[in-house]
Amino acid sequence: MENVLRPLIVVGGSVVLTLLIGWAVDRVLRKADARHQENSLWGLLRRARVPFQLVLFAALLRGSYDQAELLVEHRVGVGRTLTLILIGSAAWLVIRIATAIVETSYTRYANAHRDPARVRRVRTQVTLIQRVVSAIVTVMAVASMLLTFPAMRAAGASLLASAGILGIVAGVAAQSTLANLFAGLQIAFGDMVRLGDTVVVDGEWGTVEEITLTFLTVRTWDERRITMPVSYFTSKPFENWSRGTPQMTGIVFFHLDHSAPVEAMRERLRDILRECPAWDGRDYGLAVTDSTPNTMQVRALVTAKDADDIWTVRVTVRERMIRWLTDVHPYALPRVNTAEAILPLGRSDGHPRRPAHDDTDAAVTAPTTPHTPDPPRTGPGRG
Questions:
Q1: Sign, CA torsion 342/344/345/349
Q2: What order of strands is seen across the sheet that includes strand 279-291?
Q3: Residues 109-136, mean pLDDT to the nearest whole number
Q4: HEC string of the chain?
Q5: CA 218 to CA 242: how far, in whole Å?
Q6: What pLDDT, on a 0 to 100 scale, did the predictor assign at position 166?
Q7: Residue 253's closest CA among 318, 309, 332?
Q8: What is the rounded CA–CA span in Å between residue 129 and residue 138?
Q9: Distance of CA 361 to CAs 91, 248, 295, 373, 378, Å?
Q10: What pairing do the DSSP bridges indicate for beta strands 248-256 and 239-240?
Q11: Strand pairing class (279-291; 296-304)
Q12: β-sheet bridge partners, residue 206
């Protein structure tokens, strides 16, 4: 009877204590969260109740397993398994607590500062810090698990003796990985690019969606994802439209006939922008920037608060201006002249009449003596 009650008491007592302590801690965190609603730390810590209960159960059962006298012939294997569970659950608990602290700090900073650029910068930094902490804790947990095996401890001396050579070999083999790792840290703390920034890389326009220690994901305007190593942003030039302030200036080009009413187009541009919600009202303008034998180039300048709105303003101005020119001033649109040439009046020989200002032949054929005009005729033959 004792052989049955002892394991039942040890295992059942560990389960009951784990549930009671976990319930008590969760109740305390719930009350603290309700009392301090402005601080989200207590609510985020409640997410760690599962790894906390797992750590508690593994610790209680590991400490009292010898008194249970259960599976005595497998005592070493069971004890090592409980130790591995304890190490893994402890690492899980540390990661959950670190994540709660980091997210709480970011939330406080975001509520205290209204500058979107600074908030995105801090978000990028805390995200990478969270990933670094998770990676370090995971590596330490795996190393601790391996050291629980005697074979690994015996091999430790030989591994340490060859650590220098292995370090050199690993450094050469993982050169690109280490370069991306340091590039990720440089991006996080060098404020080169942040989550939510609008960038242009390799001719593709998009928004930075994810930044890790090794790669960066850009979401393009057509919902594609471009994944590239973070070392790209430290070794090659790229456009960051969100650097500094997100405000942008855009241009719209029109190729029109030389008879286009430029002044009327300026007034029409002003009316279009006033009816466009995406225009921020900072500036606008319209000017003739170039001319060719057939057309002239008209540039409309508009402003908006960010890259998305500047696209909306540009397409709105382009569409409504072309529609207005088509309806009201169709002659202003570019034309291709396919009509036959019309001869000047008084010429039927097919030779063009020389312009009046061209006096090249006049210098040759002009009379050498002055010509006196005839006096007016007043005789009866007149009239």
A1: negative
A2: 248-256, 296-304, 279-291
A3: 75
A4: CHHHHHHHHHHHHHHHHHHHHHHHHHHHHHHHHHHCCCCCHHHHHHHHHHHHHHHHHHHHHHHHHHHHCCCHHHHHHHHHHHHHHHHHHHHHHHHHHHHHHHHHHHHHHHHHCCCHHHHHHHHHHHHHHHHHHHHHHHHHHHHHHHHCCHHHHHHHHHHHHCHHHHHHHHHHHCHHHHHHHHHHHHHHHHCCCCCCCEEEECCEEEEEEEECCCEEEEEECCCCEEEEECCHHHHCCCEECCCCCCCEEEEEEEEECCCCCHHHHHHHHHHHHHCCCCEEEEEEEEEEEEECCCCEEEEEEEEECCHHHHHHHHHHHHHHHHHHHHHHCHHHCCCCCCCCCCCCCCCCCCCCCCCCCCCCCHHHHCCCCCCCCCCCCCCCCCC
A5: 14
A6: 47
A7: 318
A8: 14
A9: 101, 60, 34, 22, 35
A10: unpaired
A11: antiparallel
A12: 199, 220
The gap from C-alpha 164 to its chain's centroid, in whole angstroms, comes to 41
User: Both tokens of residue 58?
Assistant: 């593994």
> In the structure, what pLDDT confidence band is assigned to residue 381 with cuts at 50, 70 and 90?
very low
- What is the per-residue pLDDT across 249-274, written as a single tens digit (0 to 9) for each? 899 999 999 989 999 999 999 999 99
Beta carbons of 254 and 237 less than 8 angstroms apart: no
Amino acid at 127: T
Average pLDDT, the chain: 74
Assigned token pair, 239: 């456009």
Q: Give pTM, 2 decimals.
A: 0.44
